Amino acid sequence: MRYGFLIIPTLIALAATGCSKYGYVSLSYPIEPEVYLPDGVHSIAIVNRSLTTEEEKDAKVFEAIVSTEIGSDFLASDACIKGVYDAIVQIPGTELVIPTELRMHGTGTREIPDLLDWDLVAGICEKEESQVLLVLETFDSNTNLLAKTATEQLSSILNTGKPKVTPPSEAQMQVAAYWRLYDPDTRRIVDQYQFNASRSFQTVGGIPPPDALARTAYDAGLAYIDRYLPGSYRVKRQLYKRTSGAAKQQFIAGYRRTEVANWDGAIELWGELTENPKRKTAGRACLNMAVANEVLGHTAPALDWAQRSYEFYKNKLGRDYAKILLRRKRIEGLSP
Fold first, then answer.
1. 0.85 exceeded by pTM
2. Do 166 and 262 fall into the same domain?
């Protein structure tokens, strides 16, 4: 499944370039999601396989004691699932389905289990009317509270000859969650990924908040869905500040409008110059129209103007810019 981007124009910073014929504008450029859902997926079933069997509970209690695990992985892993449930709304047209039998037995450790049987996966998806199955394969947590306390005590003894009596004021919770996304139709693992989350909490008497682990786990669930979402980074676009001849003042007036973020007004002035008898002026106006449209989130028209600036007027900036916009258009899902 692919989906477009909601383009939100941001405050544009135009760099002062002195006597140069070029100006620059900063804008957001999209980054592809790390993972795409298969085409046709609109419902995802999710299960928690990170739990131990009843016979292993005593061993887990011992593990919690020796690793100073604060809280319960049993409950925190469900909080991780809740994070995914709340974050799925960011993928348009997709819902998360939690089966009645949410929990399945796994290793109960960071040891990654074997793949689920594909017939079992298909059975769960059929029952829940979902196209794929997301599985929390492993979940494990710890805190650095004990290690930090021991380090501070040792440092105090070495420096003062006395142990430190003040309890630590901060604890760091750490979570490791390993996910697999199963596609029963193709019997393919769409994604498998371990997400490590860390969060610091202020303590009271050396004890972190009771929900510290659950909050960290919830954040890990939220963050996992980021793999399916587009991102962005800042880029600069070059445009023309002026031209020569009779159109000079109108061209400059258009650029001045961009300096106060009036891009629609700039388009109005430059649009009149795109078929100017002077080819250099027309090519520059087309290039600026491309930049203005990208700033406003109109990728397809931006591409048309960039192509026109090179095809009709041999503006080399337009040639290179068109390649960039072709890639942007593909990322945004506006073309196959």
1. no
2. no
